[in-house]
Amino acid sequence: DSNWKVPHFEKMLYDNAQLISLYANMNRLNGDEFYSDIVEKTIGFVFRELTSPEGVFYSALDADSEGEEGLFYLWNRAQLREIMPEYADLLADYWGIDGAGLWEKGRSILIRPADDALFASRQHLSEEELKQLTKMAGNILLVERGKRIRPALDDKVILSWNALMIKALAQAYQAQGRQAWLDAAIKAAEFIHQHFMSSEGQLKRVWKNGKVKITALLDDYAFLAEAYIVLYQTTFDEKWLFRAETLAKTVITHFTDPAGPLFWYSPAGINAGETMPAISRIISTTDGVEPSGNAIMAGVLISLGHYLEQPDYTERAKAMVINLQMNFTAYPSAYACWATNAVTLAMGVTTIVISGPNALRNATILNRRYNPGVLIAAAVEKSELPVFSHRFKRDQNLIYKCQGQTCSAPVTSIVDLVIQ
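Given the sequence above, the corresponding structure tokens read:
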């Protein structure tokens, strides 16, 4: 709904992952604690409800429990009075119970109909007192909710959705520096690399009960390649970049449409004994509840083209964007990822190349801010990545700002880079 009152009671991994990315980047953009709080709570939900013992992520929780939609998440004033009698009415008003949050059968969705500052002043509280009270109450309600009959869990592990979550955790780490979030992203990525990849270098799509099945589709390859690039941009471990390139090469080999620059949704060559989804071989270009695999793949090629100084990748991405430009100008809401790629190519990619003993610390500082259209490469030791060619001197902290393959004179500190 237009007011964002009624949530999607079916809790999908891909929704939560994309919301984490969005709010993490908003937090990086303006530093607002409002966004960081949402990131923390959403990651907490995924860790608590959708994370497997192996460290990968389940698909969804059903909307219904006890035969009623949303029942697991709904409350009424009487329940709050029983659990927290001293603060029940204040908290019920804060969360819109019986008012703005009223849903069905006298139960309410917890929302915040009033601004915290306004509500606190009405209750003669400071904002910090209100924050601490609602945090305490939220934790108590979580414990109580845990006693309810739970919605059914869809425990399939879907590759593309896990890739979105890996990317989200890495971006959240960039924003807030929580090591546990980065550790979780790496653990999931390593599990996928070990268990979803065949000896021939082709991916499977679904893992369940210890077995992988179904040949991976374009979204799986594209989203995972993007997640690997974000992991490189977070850890600066170059294996993630090389793994992303391996996936990109597989897509180019097995998904390319000979008639144009775009990629098929399913691969051309299927090995004997493999099972493909019962879908027609199509080229999908629009964003839906998940981004377009073709659009994400174009972004992957832009990044790899600059990091690896491979102009063929960049040219392929340009051709893909040009092919769709009439579509995303006519229907921008369905082609947001394409529009992002178009802006990136039109404005030109800026690459910040950081080397020397303080490279990782300097890169981490830069990552705290949201810098669209900027790629960061960092290396403490001499690197074989083409982007570091002639841009590394042992024991010297150097920071280059490059447009294409043209770089300005190096500076030695982040302060000097900002001034430049």
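The chain is about 50% helix and 10% strand. Try to locate this feature in the token string yourself.
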